[in-house]
């Protein structure tokens, strides 16, 4: 799709920006780091042993073996753990780690985990169970899962009632957000909700779900550094970064993932624009070919020369973005760590070449397997089948337990822990099965179905159906998807104006009722012009065109989209919104949305 802004040959060794090393860094230290870099590059390109090529017949056998792995764990859960959240595969019992969803809704839960695991699962299953085109429709199915998904999402909405639009990390499914709830959340937690909520808006014809998650993305991106980097944790009320480590792994990873996937699924150009800006910055400041490090988001000074296991999704994302060469090199480097230990530890120190202290475990993560699948799909290079075979062997001989597959508490000793995350079934064995099925001659919905599919960050299938991906075509051509009826938002309580009701230390959220009706698929907040269409403001940057604002924590200034005009009063959190409705077609600032934090909570939904 595009290439990194700056070639790797122009990037000095371990310095991922043009800024010099801190003064205390000696010449000897630079030489040591250069030697480490050379050794790691050698290790990644020339692994210590090479597996024999996987034949098509062996690929079929491995596919069948992976299917048996899935049912060993799934049957273990159904027999010993259902309806608890997860299986304890060693003791063959169940445990509630995510909120005991199947038993009660009176729980405080993670907005992020509930969205990607539960809401995404309900929506994906609904789309499969109701789809005639795939031949998998269940005749007796009557949208029961969709109703559950909508009910769950409405219980999550109070989390979005913040001055920045970035949601709280947790919410009580019965009472809303407690007044003592932490105001700190991760970038991934606030920016990895667009797919599930966007699909729900299209299926229910209610734009509120998509609107709040788009506002959250805008709230995060508006607070990026001048290097176009985002930090790991942020205060959802003040918009101040509480952890300024920028990376592609822990606490940030799926923020990048959902920018690109939201564009692919929904076709909205602003997601692509943000992704390209964010990706170029990541490749410039974080990429130390073939590894990635964590840096300070403001200065680009290296904070951690560390490979953490969540980074391993990145080569797969690069395949979707069309940037294959660095993806190939990085996957090889990451897989060299797997080969060394039999699994990838949560952290591997690139300076000491050892497992990072306190990060010795392998909790059955799928990210490296996912990237291996995508690279095989893109290249058909047999090395990725060899890698998949090694991964299957590691799981079978190191992690298999009586009723499922166990966490590895230490990748050097291979000690097992009595826990199995739900993503082992949703992702880890799924990507392994897809890898070998692709080699054997694909016989699955992904390759042979009536649509293309996007995988959510939890591995749920999200079909690019006309209802989801062409919702904004508005019946503009013959055969386009459209509904016969218009819609308007309706309040859950008749006559209620938009507000947040507070009682007993919690917030309750109600939907607003707009003043006008919108045709099917149009959100009230979506007024961004499209290139070549009447209404495009000539001379605007893409950031201005999409109404994206910029905040600077260090100078207490807010600029809108590079114009350099600062709002003089930022003693409270402010959202700057562009309008394109003036007679001379120049952008203007809508004063009605210069919200300050001393207002009541009902003013906290950012607007566009």
Describe the protein in words.
- The chain is α+β, with helices and mostly antiparallel strands and 608 residues long.
- It has a domain of 408 residues: Glycosyltransferase.
- It is 37% helix and 12% strand.
- It has 17 helices and 27 strands.
- A three-stranded antiparallel sheet has the order 5-6-7. A three-stranded antiparallel sheet has the order 8-11-12, with no helix packed on it.
- The longest helix is centred in the N-terminal third of the chain and has 25 residues.
- It is globular and about 55 Å long.
- The N terminus and C terminus are likely disordered.
Q: Brief overview, please?
A:
The chain is α+β, with helices and mostly antiparallel strands and 608 residues long. The chain contains 17 helices and 27 strands. The active site is at residues 113, 253, 346, 367.
């Amino acid at each position: 799709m595009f290439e990194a802004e700056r070639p790797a040959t122009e990037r000095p060794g371990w310095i991922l920006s043009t800024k010099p090393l801190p003064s205390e860094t000696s010449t000897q230290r630079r030489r040591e780091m250069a030697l480490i870099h050379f050794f790691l590059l050698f290790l990644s390109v020339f692994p210590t042993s090479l597996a024999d090529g996987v034949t098509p017949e062996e690929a079929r056998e491995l596919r069948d073996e992976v299917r048996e792995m899935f049912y060993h764990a799934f049957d273990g859960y159904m027999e010993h753990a259902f309806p608890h959240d997860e299986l304890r595969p060693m003791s063959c019992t169940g445990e509630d780690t995510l909120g005991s969803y199947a038993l009660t809704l009176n729980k405080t839960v993670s907005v992020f985990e509930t969205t990607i695991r539960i809401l995404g699962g309900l929506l994906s299953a609904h789309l499969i169970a109701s789809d005639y085109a795939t031949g998998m429709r269940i005749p007796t199915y009557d949208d029961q899962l969709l109703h559950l998904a909508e009910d769950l999402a409405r219980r999550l909405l109070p989390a979005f009632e913040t001055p920045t639009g970035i949601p709280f990390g947790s919410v009580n499914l019965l009472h809303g957000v407690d007044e003592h709830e932490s105001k700190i959340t991760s970038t991934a937690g606030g920016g990895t909700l667009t797919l599930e909520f966007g699909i729900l808006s299209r299926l229910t014809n209610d734009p509120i779900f998509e609107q709040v998650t788009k506002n959250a993305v805008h709230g995060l991106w508006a607070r990026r550094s001048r290097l176009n980097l985002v930090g790991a944790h942020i205060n959802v009320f003040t918009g101040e970064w509480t952890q300024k480590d920028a990376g592609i792994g822990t606490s940030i990873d799926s923020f990048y993932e959902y920018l690109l996937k939201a564009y692919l699924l929904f076709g909205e150009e602003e997601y692509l624009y943000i992704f390209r800006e964010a990706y170029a910055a990541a490749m410039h400041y974080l990429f130390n070919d073939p590894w990635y490090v964590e840096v300070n988001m403001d200065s680009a000074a290296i904070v951690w020369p560390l490979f953490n296991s969540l980074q391993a999704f990145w080569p797969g994302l690069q395949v979707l973005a069309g940037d294959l060469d660095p993806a190939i090199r990085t996957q090889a480097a990451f897989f060299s760590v797997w080969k060394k230990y039999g699994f990838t530890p949560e952290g591997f120190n690139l300076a000491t070449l050892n497992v990072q202290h306190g990060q010795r475990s392998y909790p059955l993560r799928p990210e490296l397997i996912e990237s291996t699948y995508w690279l095989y799909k893109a290249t058909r290079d047999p090395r990725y089948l060899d890698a998949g075979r090694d991964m299957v062997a590691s799981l079978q001989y190191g992690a298999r337990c009586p009723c499922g597959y166990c966490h590895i508490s230490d990748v050097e000793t291979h000690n097992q822990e009595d826990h199995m995350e739900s993503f082992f079934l949703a992702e880890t064995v799924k990507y392994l099965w897809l890898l070998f099925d692709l080699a054997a001659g694909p016989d699955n919905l992904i390759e042979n179905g009536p649509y293309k599919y996007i995988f959510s960050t939890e591995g749920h299938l999200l079909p690019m159906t006309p209802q989801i991906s062409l919702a904004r075509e508005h019946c503009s051509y013959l055969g386009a998807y459209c509904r016969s009826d218009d819609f308007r938002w309706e309040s859950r309580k008749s006559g209620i104006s938009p507000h947040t009701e507070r009682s007993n230390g919690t917030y309750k959220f109600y939907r607003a009722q707009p003043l006008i009706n919108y045709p099917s698929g149009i959100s009230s907040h979506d007024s961004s012009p499209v290139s070549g269409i009447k209404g495009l403001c000539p001379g605007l940057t893409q950031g201005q065109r999409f109404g994206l604002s910029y905040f600077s924590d260090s100078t207490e200034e807010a600029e809108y989209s590079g114009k350099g005009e600062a709002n003089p009063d930022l003693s409270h959190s402010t959202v700057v919104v562009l309008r394109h409705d003036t007679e001379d077609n120049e952008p203007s600032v809508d004063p009605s949305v210069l919200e300050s934090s001393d207002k009541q909570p009902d003013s906290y939904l950012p607007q566009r």
